[in-house]
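Q: what sequence does this backbone want?
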């Protein structure tokens, strides 16, 4: 099972494959599911910005397509350590507990949060 340091390294490595010709803001994400599986994603931009997929959601879609539904930890890598957007936090919350570690890596640092710290009042039905 990948440790949290390995998860961060995978997110940083995935970031190199991001497709961000419009914003130049490359993002990589890596998820460890509760079964120990690893899922990666990158942001993929589109000229029609609404069609853009964030790295976090890309990794989640891969996880679900692979048959897993629970996130144990997620790492996100950006140049400046920006957190996941609100939409991504909402989607992460669909598959993770408020205690889930969210690791946010920049080019020169790392911050660790619990999901509940980043989205304390997510929408739920």
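A:
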């Amino acid at each position: 099972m990948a440790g949290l340091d390995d998860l961060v390294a995978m997110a940083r490595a995935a970031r190199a494959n991001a497709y961000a010709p419009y914003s130049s803001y490359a993002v990589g994400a890596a998820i460890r599911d509760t079964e120990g599986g690893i899922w990666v994603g990158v942001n993929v931009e589109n000229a029609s910005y609404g069609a853009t997929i964030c790295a976090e959601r890309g990794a989640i879609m891969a996880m679900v397509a692979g048959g897993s539904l629970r996130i144990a930890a997620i790492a996100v890598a950006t140049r400046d350590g920006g957190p996941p957007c609100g939409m991504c936090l909402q989607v992460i919350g669909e598959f993770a507990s408020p205690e889930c570690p969210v690791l946010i890596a920049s080019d020169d640092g790392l911050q660790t949060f619990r999901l509940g710290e980043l989205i304390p009042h997510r929408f739920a039905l």
